[in-house]
What does this fold into?
Amino acid sequence: MSEEKTVLLTQDAYDKLKDELAHREGQYREEITKRIAAARAEGDLSENGGYQAAREEQARNEGRINELTVKLRNAKIVEAPKAGKVGNGSVVTLELAGREMTYVLGSRDIKVATEYDVISPESPIGAAILGANAGDTVSYAAPNGREISVLIKEAKPLG
It folds into this structure.
């Protein structure tokens, strides 16, 4: 059995995932069950596309329910560091190759709580900026081995 990994979430991301789980376990599960029953009433299940589609949707929903249950069980709520310091849950504005880009540093599950793209702290660029301060220039090794410099223009807490 594989070891379950801690999922770092902001409070807002945790709440949104919890709301999604409640919806999928309640109303959405009931809707799918009604579609299956209606399609089953049509007769021959072997050639019933509506029945097959509803069963596939049921399987996807149950899979997502299991995924959300595990994530929420293993969630650790993180509080982003104060403005100027880069940490999990920080909104970071970077200058990279002359282009300015804004990201959130954290797990991809934080994406539900923000319109920004997310950088994982385990990625090369995420590891390089984690713990740095606004105004710092850090570097990381790209997949091709080239050293890339990044200027941290701004860091602020998400939310």
